[in-house]
Specification:
By secondary structure, the chain is of the alpha+beta class. The chain has ten helices and 25 strands. A hairpin with a 5-residue loop joins strand 16 and strand 17.
Length: about 550
């Protein structure tokens, strides 16, 4: 057996078992077989002792469930599966022992349990019946079926793999190695020193006493593997815990600066720390890709609290990183990285022409907002009149004014101060206007001009535009327009439902002689605000 520190009694039993097995291989007198009774009883006692320890460990799982069910539940459920699977294997091996004794001695199912105790069993020296039941006549081809050595080997192998698969081989290789060692199914040397399969070495041509003792040892190994699996699962519950010997109340105010009429707010919490072992805190640089940390200046720590103090010498954003190293119960160290930033600014003055505070309906209006002394990320803005304002970057916003909005709105700016309090920094009024009316253009002609037939056709249609000096780069679309002209004494033309010349228009333009006037009228356009406009006509003379 393995997987734990053995008592002197357990070591003595193990040594006796090895000695007797060696003597048996040398065909020593059957009187020595009674010594296997002593070994078997000792193994049974050790198995029961281990079972009691395993039950005690399950009680610890239940206690942890009462303390922190969320953390313990996954490992407790795995522990229950280990317990159930191990007990199933113990019961199966026990059934094998009863079956082997019954078939060898001739007991029936009604025989009293005490008669199945090895000390009370006759024919302890019977070789033939156990060998025939467990292996068969040919050790090279062991028989299969219930209560055979080969079936037991398959079940033990499946049970061992089931326990091993509960653990991550990259992080818990030691636990897997213990379980694999506890239930070893390796080849065994025979009397001649040659290796034999596990089932042959344990059960072929051995007397009943040795076979029963081997089965009892397998039960002990199952309990040992169960113990190692349960211990490893329980370590997962407590390995990440930290040692604390002091709990103190801490008050963390949201602000030590309160305006008259505002509420003073503070959080009261319990902080746990160790008075004998302070955490190690330091500033430094952390690589986000490799998660490696380059240490820098240490941070002074008192009663579990670190204090960072640095003088501001340069304006702008400043970031810093660091790590808190805290020792776990198992002696390993857990690193907790942190990162923060602060803004250094000097007093400033903002001057803006208030008459230029204009928002246009139906489009997205870019707005820049800042408050002296307050970082842009700590500023929020809202707008009156059922309109919307959205932050797109630090200091940059987009305002959308609805079509039904009135002629004036206010943008309200609120700042979150360093202490966590929020304060309204002011309200800025804006006038609301509609977008200006666009104008129509064919090429670079917006009223009258001259084009050849091909030059006119090359323009493909009419476009709508806002005045070049308009602040916004917006698009307009032509909804429809009409073209009329006189050709061979008749008025001809067509109606377009978009910005492009229709096929009929193209045919007419191709046929027009020089000097013919072509009128584009009833031009209707739609701006970015979805407002439709009637635009001035354009007259083109064919060159």
């Amino acid at each position: 057996m393995s997987g734990g520190k053995e008592t002197p009694r357990q070591r003595m039993i193990g040594m006796m078992y090895l000695v007797l097995t060696a003597l048996l291989a040398l065909n020593v007198s059957k009187d020595l077989l009674n010594a296997f009774v002593i070994i078997n009883d000792g193994l049974n006692e050790s198995t029961q002792t281990q079972h009691s320890k395993n039950l005690s460990l399950m009680d610890q799982f239940k206690a942890q469930m009462a303390v922190d069910a969320r953390k313990t539940q996954p490992f407790y459920e795995l522990a229950l599966s280990v317990e159930a699977s191990s007990q199933e294997m113990i019961d199966y091996v026990e059934s094998m022992k009863r079956h082997l004794i019954a078939q060898t001695v001739g007991y029936d199912e009604l025989t009293h349990d005490s008669m199945y105790l090895l000390r009370n069993v006759d024919k302890k020296d019977d070789y033939d019946t156990p060998t025939n039941l467990l292996i068969g006549s040919e050790p090279a081809f062991p028989k299969e079926g219930d209560f055979t050595a080969l079936d037991l080997k398959h079940r033990l192998n499946a049970h061992r793999d089931q326990l091993s698969q509960l653990f991550d081989p990259t992080r818990e290789a030691e636990a897997i190695e213990k379980i694999q060692s506890d239930i070893a199914l390796n080849e065994l040397p025979n009397a001649e020193g040659k290796l034999e399969p596990w089932e042959v070495g344990n059960f072929y041509h051995l007397p009943l006493a040795a076979c029963i003792t081997n089965l009892t040892k397998i039960q002990a190994d199952i309990r040992t593997a169960e113990s190692d699996a349960l211990k490893s699962l329980y370590d997962n519950v407590s390995v990440n815990d930290f040692k604390f010997d002091t709990i103190a109340a801490r008050v963390v105010p949201k602000s030590n600066y309160v305006l008259l009429g505002e509420n003073y707010q503070a959080e009261v919490l319990l902080a746990a720390y160790s008075t004998t072992e302070q955490p190690n805190m330091m500033l430094g640089t952390r690589d986000a890709n490799t998660e490696s940390f380059s240490p820098g200046d240490s941070i002074p720590v008192e009663n579990g609290l670190g204090m960072i103090s640095t003088k501001s010498t340069k304006e702008g954003f400043h970031t810093y990183q660091g790590v808190v190293a805290l020792k776990r119960n198992d002696g390993s160290v857990k690193h907790f990285p942190f990162e923060s930033e602060y803004l250094v600014a000097k007093p400033s003055l903002t001057v803006a022409p208030t008459k230029m505070n204009v928002l246009y309906k139906g489009i997205v209006n870019p707005v820049k907002i800042s408050a002296p002394g307050v970082a842009n990320e700590n500023i929020t803005a809202s707008i009156t009149g059922g309109n919307s304002i959205k932050k797109i970057a630090n200091g940059m916003y987009e305002v959308s004014v609805s079509k039904t909005s009135g002629m004036d709105v206010e943008v309200i700016v609120t700042a979150t101060l360093e202490d966590g309090t929020k304060r309204e920094m002011g309200r800025e009024p804006f006038r609301v206007k509609r977008l200006p009316k666009p104008y129509a253009e064919i090429g670079d002609i917006s009223t009258t001009g001259r084009y050849s037939n091909n030059e006119l056709l090359a323009r493909q249609g009419i476009k709508a535009m806002y005045a070049p000096d308009f602040e916004f780069q917006l698009k307009c679309s032509i909804v429809e327009f009409e073209m009329t002209t006189r050709y061979q004494g008749n008025v001809v033309g067509d109606l377009a439902k978009n910005a492009y010349f229709t096929p009929k228009m193209i045919e007419i333009i191709k046929a027009l002689p020089s000097g013919t006037e072509v009128v584009f009228k009833n031009i209707r356009a739609k701006g970015d605000d979805d407002v439709r406009h009637d635009l001035s006509p354009i007259v083109i003379t064919i060159k």
